[in-house]
Amino acid sequence: MTDNFTEIRLRKRYRAEKRFKIYSVSALILALLILATLISSIAISSIPAFTQINIGIDVKMNDDQILQFEEDPENVSWRSLQKKSFYSMFPDVETRKDKKELNKLLSTGAYIEIKKFYLDNPNKLPDNNIIYVPASDDVDLLIKDIIDRDLPQDMRTISDNQISYLDKLISNNRIKKTISWRLFSNSDSREPELAGLKGGIVGTLLTMFVTLIISFPIGVLAAIYLEEIAPKNKFTDIIEVNINNLAAVPSIVYGLLGLAVFLNYMNMPRSAPLVGGIVLALMTLPVIIIATRAAMASIPPSIREAAYGVGASQMQVIVHHVFPLALPGILTGTIIGIARAAGETAPLLMIGMMAFIVDVPSKITDKATVLPAQIYMWANNPERSFEYLTSAAILILLVILIMMNLLAILLRKKYERRW
Amino acid sequence: MLTIYLIILLGLSFVSYFYGKRLIRRRVYEQKISQHSRDSYHGLYLSLYLIIPSIILTLIWLASSPNIIDSLLKSKIKNSLPDLSLGEINILKSKVISAYDGILPVDSEQMEIFVGFYNSANIISTNFIIIISALVSVSFFLFALNRIRVRFNARSKVENILKFSMILASCVAIITTIGIVLSLIIETIEFFKIIKITDFLFGLQWSPQIALREDQVAGEGLFGAIPIFIGTILITLIAMFIAVPIGLLSAIYLSEYSKPKIRAIAKPMLEVLAGIPTVVYGFFAALTVAPFLRNSGASVGLSLSSESALAAGLVMGIMIIPLISSLSDDVINAVPQSLREGSAALGSTQSETVKLVILPAALPGIVSAILLALSRAIGETMIVVMAAGVAANLTFNPFESVTAVTVQIVVLLIGDQEFDSAKTLAAFALGFTLFIITLLLNVLSIYIVRKYREQYD
User: Fold this and answer.
1) Within a domain: residue B113?
2) Would A214 disulfide with which of A281, A375, B69, B108, CB 3.0-4.6 Å?
């Protein structure tokens, strides 16, 4: 009877054990599955954005245009050259309305490619040239089978006529799929087939540069002081509590600080990497200070004592011994902090770094946007192509961040010393 | 101009470093007595005295000159066009500055005068600061040069400068806090001059955009913050509901059950989840999770808003998982092995050890981790901006669209340039509330760990 009772209880307990183990392992699997879903859903939806459909058009300049070109390439009316050349490929399209529809197959920026071609190859001016120009985003989606051509006409953004023109182009072998390098060479645009990330990438680099040159020296100096020099008193306590609290302040509050102090009080330029960099630097500072202090605390006291023993001053001990030994750890922490700042969006929205900016910024006071803000703006764009572009931009951002983190891990692996 | 000056100065200070080194070498050679400080300290002493005054002056100038030139331009406009109102002067002023930057064309003669004035004011002020800082720097340099002797204690001078700069750097943390608190408080007080504080804290209607007629009292809109607080609480609760069990259980698995190999793979993966920018989560919520929830809701007959609190909360929970799991993992690992062994010796199964021994021992740390995660969730912006709604709905229904504090801050501040309207001030009042709440949570989490942590060693 008792044996039976114990056995039942034991079995129950083992079942409970098994259940608990299943719960905990499934929690972990669930978390990893979510990660996999997140990455794969973004990766899959970014695929269409990495290729681009181009349409080849026969371009031949007439003598007038060649003369104009030789005077000044800006004099040539590139748009009408593009239109005329394209229309001449479809002699049976006659009415204005049809021609307009036909022209909509090409991107509104198609003429830029023609201009670029002639600027690069001035010796081909009198020839008959086939120039490939970007197709409009609707054509792009149709050829990638994202727009279903079997749908009734009024349910898709591309008309039957346009599809028949396209079919002709396809049978003439004038459709070419290329890798969309313009993602890296163009700046933002209202047209998805022309929009690129160059402005955002350069803006991020400039902002991170400002963040780094402000937060690294200040963070390291502060950490050295607090870890090695500061006497234990009220003042030091206040600083330490402050740093811990700053690490927990929501990022958007830093944005409010930037808006109120740097933009409205100090009149610094709006939307500039300078202000964005300062705000992110203040945000990164606690991360760098905490990482630096941890790195310096892990240097054994024997190093310091040996240096003192041969007559070094406190500063010499720090500058010549402790700091160089702690540097790998400090750099690792700094890179991780900067990587976090590079993915930050909210404070930058506050100081206006999400404006539509076509020019690539060249200095830290120019108007600029950053990659995450670019992602946010594209995500808000209702046009379907921007959905794929946003995913591609996210993938690029993630690759950059992962590379930074890998660098930090490598640094740690290579130079980390166990004492 | 200023950049060139600073670059030249940098070059000069570089040269003066080597000059100081050579100088002290020569003196030692001539006087044949041993020196007090090593050569490099004399060099550093010289170059620091050359460059630091200029840098300080330039920083002060950079912070103050735009304001001074601005007010000069304003008074110039006011003098030549006395009948303009203050707002018109401000508009004209920003036009002049844009024209100076080359964004707007200089279209009238008057504009030309103002732009010319602004231009010359800028040039004069730049020249002024360059001359002043050059003079100050050179005199400091000469002073330093004069003091260099063989027995001169250059080392402690240089070390003091370094130490002082370290103290200054530590103060940046305090200055930042003061800056945050002051900028939030000042605007918040301005806001409460327009809107009563009780209306803000206990009002049930939030519609800052409504301005029916200008002369209406309610033209300012309604600023009752309860609906957005409720929205934030609802979204945060959903997030915690997802994140706490998953995060905690995976931490338990990783620290108690898993083989080292699995741990070595799974832990960095969770850290990847922590490193993903929040804007990516926002995109995931808006584009994948929300439509999925709406469709699956529709298939069982539930009508979900496309900006439902559920989607935002779910994704926010996903974002919080790694935070909870890594913090609890640390806490669980800190529980000494002897406790586990003692429990096993008494015959308990592993899960009983976890539930009855380890979790109680680690509880303060876990609670503090949860509080930290809570404060992260409350302050999180991009996920809710992209996945939650804008309209303030007073509801506890997770299938409906709600808004959050951070969403309102973003919505109120984006695109609005006018700084003293109730709308922008309201954003600061919300920011201040947010700051206070996260601060309290943080302090509470530190307090819990300090007060209830068991000391085992």
Assistant:
1) yes
2) A281
How close B278 comes to chain A (CA, Å)?
A: 7
Query: Complex ipTM, two decimals?
Result: 0.90
Q: What is the pLDDT of residue B218?
A: 47
- Does any domain span residue A187? no
Q: What is the tally of structural domains in chain A?
A: 3
- Mark yes or no for CB contact A31/B321 under 8 Å: yes
Specify whether A148 is located in the same domain as A208: no
Mark whether A205 and A267 lie in a shared domain.
yes
The C-alpha angle A330, A336, A340, rounded to 5 degrees, equals 140
Q: How many CB pairs under 8 A join A and B?
A: 261
| φ/ψ of residue B204, rounded to 5 | -100, 0
What is the pLDDT at residue A2?
64
The domain boundary residue, chosen from B98, B132, B152: B152
- What pLDDT, on a 0 to 100 scale, did the predictor assign at position B197? 86
Least confident of A168-172, A182-186, B29-33, B83-87: B83-87
- pLDDT, mean of residues A267-285: 91
Q: Average the pLDDT over A162-171 and give the result.
A: 86
**What is the residue range of A281's domain?**
198-415
DSSP assignment of A55-111: EEEEE---HHHHHHHHH-GGGS-HHHHHHHHHHHT-TT--SHHHHHHHHTTB-TTHH
Number of domains in chain B: 2
Nearest to A350 among B187, B413, B434 (CB): B413
**Chain A residues closer than 8 Å to B430 by CB:** none
Task: Name every chain B residue with its beta carbon within 8 A of the beta carbon of A37.
Answer: 288
Q: How confident is the model at residue B415 (pLDDT cuts 50, 70, 90)?
A: low
Contacts of A221 in chain B (CB under 8 A): 165-166, 168-170
Whether A24 sits inside 8 A of B269 (CB atoms) is no
A186 is a domain residue: no
Q: What is the pLDDT of residue A1?
A: 55
Nearest CA in chain B to A16: B351
